[in-house]
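User: Fold this; tokens only.

Assistant: Input:
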Amino acid sequence: NNNSTEQLPPSYAFKRALQLLSSGLFLPGSNGLYDPINDTYTNLSRPKPIMTLEEQDRLCYTSQTLLRALAIHPKYVLGTENGPDIFAGPCELNGVMFVANEPIIFKDQSNGHAIDDTQQQAMFAEVNS
């Protein structure tokens, strides 16, 4: 929300978009985005996801990484300064040791145990409840 009548600066809009994505907006079990045409107060319908669980997770953890890097070194994230590849491994940003987030959804296994899509969705339901 913007409490004043002024327009929201692009930098704040960019940060808010990253915050939404990093919160897991598109992950199973989240409130997500609802279809305003089909929604009623008693029967909420969500659009069917077009991304796989791995892609949804990648979007979430990449946004989290960018949001953390934005807090430490904004000019680097916005591309106005050159810097290290934050996704290649541990690096230093403005004197802070930085490590990118890692996925929590694995295609074929989780903690060494085989897992399928149903088990992954149940895992998300447990985490989000």
